[in-house]
Design brief:
single chain, globular, five-stranded mixed sheet, 13 helices, Zincin-like, about 300 residues, 2 domains, two-stranded parallel ribbon
């Protein structure tokens, strides 16, 4: 009996802790499931920030979402997520927000709390984003369609590149708008003071992607090198859509008086690119991305055409 008791105490850290909180009298509950095991002390800080966000955004959550579930995870059982360094994500069709504590913990307490706050706001926005919900529900089906040889080609690597390109361009509005909203939830700096820094970063990242694509499309690039290029390209497409998309959102809303987060959330991803391109040209700049005009550093249609030619 004593041995069993000692064993139970030793393994108790593996058992998820569940808390429920009523957010004042606003008619909804927050459920926090802590599966983070080795991050239990840090998870206490994360829970405080979650509750702070939910209290601040109580009217929005009540009107748009209702009860929410937050699942805190550490480094166990999420190898796929850790590989893409995600701080958080939402589960399709459910009001579940997952927070990856392994990617949120830092040595700087002030910056750490800010990142947690921004991540929670970012993921709450995704739950409210109707298009994001549809994307999550259809993502697997899209992936399966993209992989069918009859639709694209029998070249598996080329299909993977095409799929990554599609998710990048569709994700610009989704992730970019969430990033913009999350940033301004914790910062009061002027939009004008930030837009140039975002512009420089977006141009630099788009140019890096373009250089990789040029090398991939080149007949002079050895096959072994192309295999390495695909890996780097997919990582950059995955990571850069956040900052490039955020810049696009800020450019649109700072240039067009009738555009704001409420109008952009109703805008479909490809139409969003058109809106951005028009706003950038209006500002007197070369677009970072474009849909089919070939004006952008990255042009969606031009890339897809080159991929098709590469597969013939």
């Amino acid at each position: 009996m004593e041995l069993n008791k000692l064993w139970a105490e030793k393994m108790s850290w593996l058992i998820p802790e569940v808390e429920e909180h009523d957010i004042w009298d606003h008619g909804f509950k927050i459920r926090i499931v802590d599966k983070s095991s080795g991050f239990r002390e840090f998870s206490k800080e994360v829970k405080k920030v979650i509750l702070a966000v939910c209290r601040r955004e109580n009217h929005f959550i009540k009107d748009k979402l209702g009860d929410l579930n937050f699942i805190l995870v550490g480094s166990t059982g999420i190898r796929r997520v850790l590989s893409r360094k995600a701080r958080g994500w939402v589960r399709a069709g459910k009001k579940n927000i997952y927070l990856n504590l392994n990617q949120l913990i830092t040595d700087n307490k002030k910056e750490q709390d800010k990142e947690i706050y921004k991540t929670v706001v970012h993921e709450i926005f995704h739950l409210n984003d109707d298009y994001q919900s549809k994307v999550l529900l259809k993502k697997q089906a899209l992936g399966k369609r993209v992989r069918k040889p009859s639709i694209i080609s029998k070249n598996r690597k080329a299909r993977n590149v095409r799929e990554a390109i599609q998710f990048f361009f569709h994700g610009l509005r989704i992730e970019g708008l969430a990033e913009a909203i999350a940033y301004y939830s914790t910062n009061i700096s002027s939009r004008e003071g930030r837009i140039e820094a975002l512009h420089l970063k977006a141009k630099s990242e788009a140019s890096k992607i373009n250089d990789l694509l040029l090398s991939y499309f080149s007949n002079e690039t050895p096959r072994a090198m192309k295999k390495k290029l695909i890996k780097v390209l997919k990582e950059e497409l995955r990571d850069y859509k956040y900052s490039i998309g955020e810049y696009m959102c800020v450019r649109i809303t700072s240039t067009e008086k009738n555009e704001n987060t409420s109008t952009l959330i109703k805008t479909k991803p490809l139409k969003f690119i058109r809106k951005y391109e028009a706003a950038e040209i209006k500002s007197g700049n070369k677009p970072v991305v474009s849909l089919n005009s070939k004006r952008g550093i990255l042009d969606y249609n031009n890339i897809l055409v080159k991929l098709s030619l590469l597969n013939k």
